[in-house]
Protein 1
Amino acid sequence: MQIPFNAWHDAILKRRSIRQYAAKPVEAAALEAMRRACTEFRPFPSARAVLVADPTEDIFRGIPGGYGKVSGAPALVAFVGNMESPDVQEALGYTGEGIILEATALGLATCWVGGFFSPKRAAAIAQVAPSERVLAVTPVGYPKEGSSLQERAMSRFGRNWQRRPVSELVTGLKDNERPDWMKTALEAARLAPSAMNRQPWRFHVDRNSITVSADSVLNPTMVVSKRLDCGIAMLHVEIGALAGGVRGTWDLLKTPQVARFKVAA
Ligand SMILES: Cc1cc2nc3c(=O)[nH]c(=O)nc-3n(C[C@H](O)[C@H](O)[C@H](O)COP(=O)(O)O)c2cc1C
């Protein structure tokens, strides 16, 4: 599936994490479009998304704490990674964010949830293979009316939407030396969601490439890998570049770097 970059670029600007859902089923056409996106958006062999249209179990049930408490979602998507692949985390971030942006474009609310769900229950309902794990999920549905205040109060990270400025994230070419497509790509990357809004991605830019790295040592025991956050930012970089008229390809790199976007010749 080609990246529908205009729709997904708009979605980047609109998307917010929503944790409380109205008791309203997802409309059939939107559900069908989500099912198609989950099947067709498979940019990496090691990551896939599984739509669970009518979850029989509440995988968020019994999870303590306010942060991450999702309630009332009529559907969900499980993000499934093949743990035998060394690129599973960034592949999953990139793939999952495509599904999140497609949902946003369809008028559906979502929230990446990496820590506060039951991976065992999710694995059972998404029917994963022995080499696979559900690394994250998103509820899918419509926001509960009047819950935005509650959303804010619920989150320990009150100003969820706040992001660092590009100047704190980017090294290499100076701002006035960057081509327009690159500015659009970096602005899109800056708006990416990340676990606990930690914004771990850093970008080194030269004339024809953007290299994505993580801000500190990547600890493989962390509940949510920073490489997953970086995979999300990779998709945002590419969408921004495409919206700015530039196609490119990715090379995956070794830790602490994650990947380099190179303008196609
Ligand atoms: C990989 C990942 C994992 C996340 N895990 C959780 C989670 O377990 N619980 C939760 O409430 N939010 C979770 N979030 C949502 C972030 O807190 C949210 O994206 C961030 O605060 C930015 O807010 P925004 O999405 O509204 O822009 C996660 C986000 C990402 C990208």
Note: The mean pLDDT is 91.
Protein 2
Amino acid sequence: MRHLPRLRIQRTDVPRRALVLTDTPRPDCRECDGIGGIEHDYGDYESGEYEGTDWEPCTCWNEHRRWALLPLPRRLRRSIRDPWAAHGYSDEPPF
Ligand SMILES: [Zn+2]
């Protein structure tokens, strides 16, 4: 099975709780080795103290390309009706 689809199901809380399909990095990408991005450690250059890591997404994928599969309970998406509900709640405010 070498040709797995480059899509992955993830849970997200942004902008609201949902299961989403996301694009994934190209496994043989030379830029990121399939990791999906390049990490840059940064810190205070004078003291040399480590302050954190910047994550620069690689261009071989689009981390913002995602498709909502279904909203998780409690917060219903505005644009997608709950398939299990008899009548949708699309007229409710998002929050
Ligand atoms: Zn890449």
Note: The mean pLDDT is 78.
